[in-house]
Amino acid sequence: MEVGFLGLGIMGKAMALNLLRSGFKVTVWNRTLSKVVFEKDGILEQIGEGKGYIDMSTVDVDTSSRINEAITNKGGRFLEAPVSGSKKPAEDGQLVILAAGDKVLYDEVVPAFNVLGKKTFFLGSVGSGAKMKLVVNMVMGSMMNALSEGLSLAVSSGLNQETLLEVLDLGAIANPMFRLKGPAMIQASYPPAFPLKHQQKDMRLALALGDKNAVSLPVAATANEAFKRARGRGLGDLDFSAVHEIVKTIQSSGDAK
Amino acid sequence: MEVGFLGLGIMGKAMALNLLRSGFKVTVWNRTLSKVVFEKDGILEQIGEGKGYIDMSTVDVDTSSRINEAITNKGGRFLEAPVSGSKKPAEDGQLVILAAGDKVLYDEVVPAFNVLGKKTFFLGSVGSGAKMKLVVNMVMGSMMNALSEGLSLAVSSGLNQETLLEVLDLGAIANPMFRLKGPAMIQASYPPAFPLKHQQKDMRLALALGDKNAVSLPVAATANEAFKRARGRGLGDLDFSAVHEIVKTIQSSGDAK
Amino acid sequence: MEVGFLGLGIMGKAMALNLLRSGFKVTVWNRTLSKVVFEKDGILEQIGEGKGYIDMSTVDVDTSSRINEAITNKGGRFLEAPVSGSKKPAEDGQLVILAAGDKVLYDEVVPAFNVLGKKTFFLGSVGSGAKMKLVVNMVMGSMMNALSEGLSLAVSSGLNQETLLEVLDLGAIANPMFRLKGPAMIQASYPPAFPLKHQQKDMRLALALGDKNAVSLPVAATANEAFKRARGRGLGDLDFSAVHEIVKTIQSSGDAK
Amino acid sequence: MEVGFLGLGIMGKAMALNLLRSGFKVTVWNRTLSKVVFEKDGILEQIGEGKGYIDMSTVDVDTSSRINEAITNKGGRFLEAPVSGSKKPAEDGQLVILAAGDKVLYDEVVPAFNVLGKKTFFLGSVGSGAKMKLVVNMVMGSMMNALSEGLSLAVSSGLNQETLLEVLDLGAIANPMFRLKGPAMIQASYPPAFPLKHQQKDMRLALALGDKNAVSLPVAATANEAFKRARGRGLGDLDFSAVHEIVKTIQSSGDAK
């Protein structure tokens, strides 16, 4: 199979290398991704009858639908395939791939997906991949706030925060994110693995999806307000765990009681 | 070491058996635990100089402090040691023990704790064990709501809920609770492993602890309101995952849009 | 002054009659308002150099901006002027008018506004009228939830709800909305003066405006989730006070405690 | 009627003067109120068969019940009568009196209540007065947050906050509190008419009352978290409108978008 690769960011580079190593023939266009589909000399002009276009970036449902329409109108085939996982899983071929769109194209590219990820899902019509990613990130955002509040309550109650992380890691809610981010949050260290402004955008989009379907999501809405407050304080480019700066209480010595 | 065991509920029975199997001499009083310390012919009358009393149930900070005072006034020694974990970990000797109080007594009973649990923490003065348990359960309650909202948004968006659970289980927020409770929640099955009314009580106590220290905990407060609503609907004796009955939207066919 | 009047709904009819009674020359086009500006034979074709177009409906900021652009491109002048107030104030000439856009046009039509309303504000550039209306309705939506929760807490605590309304009406937070809607809410009567789905849409738009500017609005966000839940239960066409059906607790006889 | 008056704070002084002016015989004990009922030489020792004791301070339900029990055990009669209203209404005899307890005693003292207040309610058994006050203050606390969020959204959207107050004051949600506190909040001026820590305490007690009855109060719970955050920042002794310092966004110039 011949694979054209568009955009070599941190993720793309790791993924392209994995494909090369597995014997795929990979051609790379290292151009700016934004608007690349619709612009003059853009991808769309290259699309012809039967050609396949796979979008592995995280786009929203509407954009994905417009790309799909443009491509299929020219006789092409479209698959959205956003991934769950960041740099390390990309390098290790351990991504989770959330594909949706043209099923025949999907079946053709499964061998490539198997190189890139540990698990691939075909989720149905275009938009389902984007929606699944929003739901996952919404749950993640609420959980990040839950951890942050737990750390805040611990320290204000005279408990050791590192011990809390240890206890959490031994129980039913132990998870890699708490293990990875918790110690850094205690140190107020937030190197941007997933920028807070992107997390907040995903929560906004998830809540909008819920609004469309009249689904009440009070915990996610409350978590979103914390992320918004963090963004308003200029923390948008830090890791999304920087919401901890908003949640944790700056205790005054005075009349807290 | 001679161990007197008071109360043989599900947890106590498993724990006493483990101690017996490991060669401890165990005497059991199978009486009702409520008020057992202070009542006539209660434990307090048996306490004398140097005797140790260990409370492994989950009591609140105030009760624990009162017991501690009564015991030490009679020359006894007190250790609170609530556990994290339910029936299965108790049987397997895989509990997490959150001890606090008399450090000398703690050091004496560590061999017994090592039989009961996979990890034991000594957290400081009386009350710290109870507080740690409240913090953990507060984080757990917020996470349960996060999962429930995720399932609700998924199904209303046309996504398969089982697939969402699979995707979650492959990523950074994978955790045993989602794995265990998620499939049952989809089936609206809530056999009481940890009753909702107890979870809501712990969230109330955690929020009260935060209130005392002027710590703002908006996500936990919002999750608590969902648990309260569930209790108000008569779901208090079901598992705490039954909050899903409140969170999930009963879609009307009509004018949701 | 010659006034062309477009759209005779409940509000428009009352307003046009008031203008006629005050001696204005009024021409009425009783057509469907939707898309009337941009469609073939629409208003835009009638707009020429210097002509004024005033939009007194409640449109969102983006739509208002697009209309403004289309009109000014043809040499016309545009004023948005959404109103605060419903049928009765419209009939009595007691509306509050939130105008924004072309200041010269505004000054010309002030005599007409004085007939329609008790007070007119000029708020600046196009969009400011729409924004002001969103802010007002957001505060109103939070207050409606505050009242609903108060009624719920009262009845569950054994207090008389009518007495609560009396007490509220004698104090610092007495307001016409509580006075008007409160007694009906106790009776579970929600004749649609302002439909819940419109109120929820305004809260969604207000929260989106806040999101754009990174403003955290946790109380409004929580109130919005209650309105969404109400919409999901099929209450969208009732009055927005029907959120009370969601807030008030359906007490189970059983294990609420 | 002979009236003994205990405690001459701002409120008590104004009330005692009004009684004197109306011809009541008033004896004043100007002692510290705290624990006055139960302490040695306290009020309880003066209580005999048929004597009446009226508590017009704001106490919680439990304290009121304990006082009631102590007094009636000695053959006395008890009435709780917390008031709605602050210094000015107290001086003007325009308080709202929320009485509960001994109905015969109530009927006897109505003439005195008529001097002190513009309206008196008899609400039933002891505790009902305290509960009614909590419900009213809970609604007030949510409304204060609603106003604060409205001011914050306005200013961040480029709207004039004074104009927002004007518009609010002309519509269905116009109320004395917005009129009185709004302008001061814009100026970040919070002279303590009702201290924030007392408002937060009342919201905590109202939420606890709801918890007891399994009533979900998400908007009040969210408002309470804002008041707690304010307390944590050392604003507890300022007016409760100082919650605005927490709600309003400190905009960073940087990456809010």
From TrEMBL, chains A, B, C, D:
<dbReference type="InterPro" id="IPR006115">
    <property type="entry name" value="6PGDH_NADP-bd"/>
</dbReference>
<dbReference type="InterPro" id="IPR002204">
    <property type="entry name" value="3-OH-isobutyrate_DH-rel_CS"/>
</dbReference>
<dbReference type="InterPro" id="IPR015815">
    <property type="entry name" value="HIBADH-related"/>
</dbReference>
<dbReference type="GO" id="GO:0050661">
    <property type="term" value="F:NADP binding"/>
</dbReference>
<dbReference type="InterPro" id="IPR013328">
    <property type="entry name" value="6PGD_dom2"/>
</dbReference>
<dbReference type="Pfam" id="PF14833">
    <property type="entry name" value="NAD_binding_11"/>
</dbReference>
<comment type="similarity">
    <text>Belongs to the HIBADH-related family. NP60 subfamily.</text>
</comment>
<dbReference type="GO" id="GO:0005829">
    <property type="term" value="C:cytosol"/>
</dbReference>
<dbReference type="GO" id="GO:0016491">
    <property type="term" value="F:oxidoreductase activity"/>
</dbReference>
<dbReference type="InterPro" id="IPR029154">
    <property type="entry name" value="HIBADH-like_NADP-bd"/>
</dbReference>
<dbReference type="InterPro" id="IPR036291">
    <property type="entry name" value="NAD(P)-bd_dom_sf"/>
</dbReference>
<keyword id="KW-0560">Oxidoreductase</keyword>
<feature type="active site">
    <location>
        <position position="133"/>
    </location>
</feature>
<feature type="domain" description="6-phosphogluconate dehydrogenase NADP-binding">
    <location>
        <begin position="34"/>
        <end position="124"/>
    </location>
</feature>
<dbReference type="InterPro" id="IPR008927">
    <property type="entry name" value="6-PGluconate_DH-like_C_sf"/>
</dbReference>
<dbReference type="GO" id="GO:0051287">
    <property type="term" value="F:NAD binding"/>
</dbReference>
<dbReference type="Pfam" id="PF03446">
    <property type="entry name" value="NAD_binding_2"/>
</dbReference>
<keyword id="KW-0520">NAD</keyword>
<feature type="domain" description="3-hydroxyisobutyrate dehydrogenase-like NAD-binding">
    <location>
        <begin position="127"/>
        <end position="244"/>
    </location>
</feature>
<dbReference type="InterPro" id="IPR051265">
    <property type="entry name" value="HIBADH-related_NP60_sf"/>
</dbReference>
<protein>
    <submittedName>
        <fullName>Uncharacterized protein</fullName>
    </submittedName>
</protein>
